Amino acid sequence: MAATGVIGRGAAIGRGAVGDRRTVIGRGTAGDRGTAGDRTSISAFSQELFAQLPRTDQMRWAEVYLRGLLATRGRKSVRRMAETVTSSATASQSLQQFVNASPWDWNATRQELVRWIDGRFTPRAWTVVPAVLPKRGNHSVGVHRRFVPELDRTVNCQLSVGLFLSGGREHLPVGWRLHLPEPWAEDPEARRRVRVPDSVPFRPHWAHTVGLVEALSAHSTIAPAPVVADVGSTAGAHPVVERLNGGGYGFVLAVADDLRLLPDPSPVRPAGAAAGARPALETARQKLLRGGVRHPHITTVVGPDGRPRRVQVVSVPTRTPVLRPDGTRTVAPGRLFAEWDPAHRRPGRVWLTNLVQHRMEELLALAQLLGGAAGTVAAMGEHHGIQDFEGRSFPGWHRHMTLVSAAYAYQRLSGVPAQASRAA
């Protein structure tokens, strides 16, 4: 599970025909609407995000929770946040009530967060990354045992998937899905205990990527941008590719090097092959080695540290599957590419894109955003409270993640230092 944000104190960061939604990347930089002079107060920000709440006490505790996330050092338990930002003796109980039991729609708040970000930041991509959230007990929603390659061990955890508006060094979270393993999701008693709605069935991991993208597109007016994600194996890659293609989304996806590709329309029949025999499916690695290594593309990319470096890139055209909304299937042009390791004569991480008219420099810049988003997930676990939710319920988890996302976006874009949020 590459490009995964592994949450934990001191945890290692993980490795980092198309319709009219396709976005052509121009020369403007992400965030070019600027944030330097936008010193929005935390009170004004909270009022914008939570304007839909019907009660004034809900509005008040929403602001206190945001202030606590921004101002509390270390673990952000409701008790420590309450002590940091208010003198009320009952504040911790009220915060717990606000997140876990008070009825409010986290999706409406996320839509307001997207709108607020959209006025201050221009993303170059919608980046989707998973986040592993270690847990000690077994009673929280979705907790299960899972092998995490970045830690090289099996951990007790929740697995979530986040969507980030990414560009430059900014990766701003605006949507989350919690993965419920199939045995867990089909246990009526477990679902009842943590209040999982009947409308939330088991979904394979790949479906969360597509669901997040479709939800953002359907419920906001933000301009579409290429989808950047790691879809890994064949089992997860093909459904994501065909649905993003069918929805008209541009994409740059990290894929497994053994991903089997659609055959070329007129393949050359190998010597000795029987007439009429179906062509063997090539893997992504095989296709790059066969067609891309003779003429590597040499270009310059700017790394996360801001320093340029020259790289060799191998690239070949391919075909990608399309599943249209009406259920019909077809194919669309695509391209495989990877950085080439000349010393070992092999490709690095393999990428698949349907943005066939984009320059290689643009595709490489989009691909680099994946590692930055994974690093942001890890940083949010270290400093912004993703792992500090103390409840067990499905609604509580989503509300906490929404508040953490809002606090992170506010700190990055408001121009107000974090310590300025200490005053209640």
TrEMBL record:
- The lineage's top-level taxon is Bacteria
Q: State one Pfam family annotation.
A: DDE_5
Ranges for domain Transposase IS701-like DDE come to 48-280
What's the name of the protein?
IS701 family transposase
